[in-house]
Each structure stands twice: as C-alpha cells, then as structure tokens.
Design a protein that fits this description.
four-stranded antiparallel beta sheet, two-stranded antiparallel ribbon, 35% helix, 6 strands, 136 residues, alpha+beta, single chain, Alpha-Beta Plaits
C-alpha cells in the first residue's frame, strides 16, 4: 500500500494556542504512524508567488491512517480547536499517483523514477499512465 501525505501551509497569527497545538498534535500523529518529514518556515523561493509561511508535510503508512488522524473525534474535539484559534491553514492530501503532481519535474531528469502504483522503476523518458515523455 502506498504511503500518504498531509501537506499544510500554515499561517500562525496567535502563538499561545499554537504552542498548545504542537504539544498535543505531534504525539497524536505519531501514535497513528505519522512522521513529520518537513516542518519549516525557511524557504528559498525559486519561482512563482505561492505564499508559503510554514510548510508541513506529514507522512503516513496509508491514506486510511492519514484520514483517521484528521477525521478522528480526538483530533477534531481536543486538538484542532487550538490550531483554529492560532492559525489559518491550507491542508491537502496529494493524489496517490505521483505523476499527477510531478510529471514535469520527474521527466526532466535523465534517470529512473519509481512508479508508486506498481512499485517498479521506470525510465523517465518512457513514462507510464499516458504522461508525456520529457522533451529536453
């Protein structure tokens, strides 16, 4: 089963509730198999105007585990209120097919990429799932 991710763009506006949130959410996420792989407010903008203030990416063993955290009564009643009181967030889960989100990046590289659906490596110049091959 492919891993799943929750991606958060967080804009903190009140520090105290966010301290309480961080104290509660991290052990809760870990208890559901979640692992913070990115949590930063430092960026080197390369291009574009995306308004990132704090980027958080949490990895879970499966989409079911990710949604179990977000949809749980424990999170919604005892943890989420601190986040809502202290920040504004954009929260999403990328699609399971990484080609839907990274085909332009993956196919610029003259190397193999992992096809997460089959678990096998494929050539970047011969993409699966009908994606266009790289042109450079």
């Amino acid at each position: 089963m492919p891993k799943a991710y929750i991606v958060v763009n967080m804009k903190v506006h009140t520090r105290e509730p966010m301290l309480a949130y961080a104290e509660r959410v991290r052990p809760f996420v870990a208890s559901h198999g979640g692992r913070y792989i990115i949590d930063t407010n430092e960026f080197d903008r390369l291009e574009g105007n995306l308004d990132l203030t704090r980027l958080i990416v949490i990895e879970f063993p499966s989409m079911a585990d990710a949604l179990a955290v977000y949809d749980s009564d424990e999170y919604r009643q005892n943890i989420m209120p601190y986040r809502l009181a202290g920040s504004d967030c954009d929260i999403s889960t990328p699609p399971r097919n990484p080609y839907a989100i990274c085909s332009k990046i993956c196919y610029r590289q003259p190397q193999q990429v992992l096809d997460y659906q089959s678990g096998s490596a494929v050539r970047a110049d011969n993409p699966p799932h009908g994606a266009a091959p790289r042109s450079d």
